[in-house]
């Protein structure tokens, strides 16, 4: 019996690239579908996956989840071997379907337009990618023998939730950004397609994932970058907002555990189950970087929420998920990684 083939959409991104590496280490064949868009520098995404390009079990397809024909070609096995040069384009041919083990039997869907702030400026793109793109995948998957569909959702779907910590069973009456609304819509399509076509679906609601390769616009990386450039970091509101931060290795563990335990339909929170206030985080960054932190105090940001806090009891119980990296250890590791990147950037 051949290796299982996993399709990872958005596999050149922050979380996706870490997940691709873990899957390859566990002896899976991986197809990475990524369009390398310019929401942030495509060169960073190229760097994310440069170490796996020559792995014979890795296929990189530079394409879009909005391309229905491309998705059908992937699931039917009609994709020619793709050259592993950074500037390569996908070569799609109508070939006789390859052997069954070359077709994806599981999907981990990470591809999305991310970011709350950007969604306030261009909400239509989030409908196109986060909603329509997810619908496209579901519509194609229902026509093929796919054993599992894992969807990466977000803690943002909880909106301003007065009940804390947030539980997967909570009612979600209001999302406060187009990004959050799009993620919630995608969740609803997942549930609907499970109901209609019995697709096994697991939804993972990710709580502020951070670590090496994090997107430049996300808080911890943005803060560290500004600190090393001796620039002030933006502090919105009174600095008392609280977040549940998830180190990337713990996040990847949750995907691996979910993949090895297919569900009929379930939703899980992926977080640390612990809170840290913004000012405490800033103090921690100051200590780990060894630099004084300058702050620029600003009004509250539209689309932001005062707290995110994951109830991970269900995830612990069913997936045996046990986050290992504390915020203190995670920030220390992140700063160590960034110092190396910063040194390379300055050379």
Provide structural commentary.
It contains eleven helices and 13 strands. It is an alpha/beta fold and 347 residues long. It has a single domain, classed as NAD(P)-binding Rossmann-like Domain (Rossmann fold, 3-Layer(aba) Sandwich). The strands form four sheets. It has a seven-stranded parallel beta sheet, sandwiched between helices. Strands 7-10 form a two-stranded parallel sheet. It has a two-stranded parallel ribbon with strand order 8-13. Helix 2 links the parallel strand 2 and strand 3. Helix 7 (219-228) crosses helix 11 (327-346) and helix 9 crosses helix 11 (327-346). The longest helix is centred in the middle third of the chain and has 20 residues, at 178-197. 41% of the residues are buried. Mean pLDDT is 91; it is low at 81-100.
Question: Beta-strand percentage?
Answer: 15-25%
Structural class by helix and strand composition: alpha/beta
The shape, in one word, is globular
Return the CATH class. Alpha Beta
Could you state the CATH homologous superfamily?
Answer: NAD(P)-binding Rossmann-like Domain
Separation of the first and last Cα atoms: 49 Å
Cα radius of gyration in angstroms: 20 Å
């Amino acid at each position: 019996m051949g290796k299982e083939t996993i399709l990872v959409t958005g596999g050149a991104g922050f979380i996706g690239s870490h997940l691709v590496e873990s899957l390859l280490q566990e002896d899976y064949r991986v197809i990475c579908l990524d369009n390398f868009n310019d929401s942030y520098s495509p060169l960073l995404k190229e760097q994310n996956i440069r170490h796996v390009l020559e792995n014979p079990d890795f296929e990189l397809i530079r394409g879009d989840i909005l391309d229905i024909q491309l998705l059908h070609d992937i699931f039917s096995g009609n994709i020619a071997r793709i050259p592993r040069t950074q500037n390569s384009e996908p070569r799609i041919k109508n070939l006789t379907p390859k052997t069954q083990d070359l077709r994806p039997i599981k999907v981990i869907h990470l591809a999305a337009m991310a970011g709350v702030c950007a969604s306030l400026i261009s909400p239509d793109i989030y409908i196109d990618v986060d909603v329509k793109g997810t619908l496209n995948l579901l519509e194609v998957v229902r026509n093929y023998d796919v054993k599992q569909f894992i969807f990466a959702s977000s803690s943002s779907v909880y909106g301003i939730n007065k009940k804390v910590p947030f539980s997967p069973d909570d009612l979600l009456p209001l999302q406060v950004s187009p990004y959050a609304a799009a993620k919630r819509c995608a969740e609803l399509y997942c549930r609907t397609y499970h109901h209609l076509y019995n697709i096994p679906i697991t939804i993972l609601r990710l709580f502020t994932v951070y670590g090496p390769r994090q997107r430049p616009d996300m808080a911890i990386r943005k803060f560290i970058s500004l600190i090393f450039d001796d620039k002030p970091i933006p502090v919105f509101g009174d600095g008392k907002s609280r977040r549940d931060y998830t180190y990337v290795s713990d996040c990847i563990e949750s995907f691996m555990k979910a993949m090895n335990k297919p569900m009929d339909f379930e939703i899980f929170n992926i977080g640390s189950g612990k809170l840290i206030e913004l000012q405490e985080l800033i103090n921690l960054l100051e200590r780990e970087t060894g630099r004084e932190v300058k702050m620029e105090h600003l009004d509250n940001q539209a689309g932001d929420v005062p707290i995110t806090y994951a109830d991970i009891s269900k995830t612990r119980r069913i997936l045996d998920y046990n986050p290992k990296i504390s915020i203190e250890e995670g920030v220390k590791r992140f700063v160590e990684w960034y110092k190396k990147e910063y040194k390379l950037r300055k050379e």
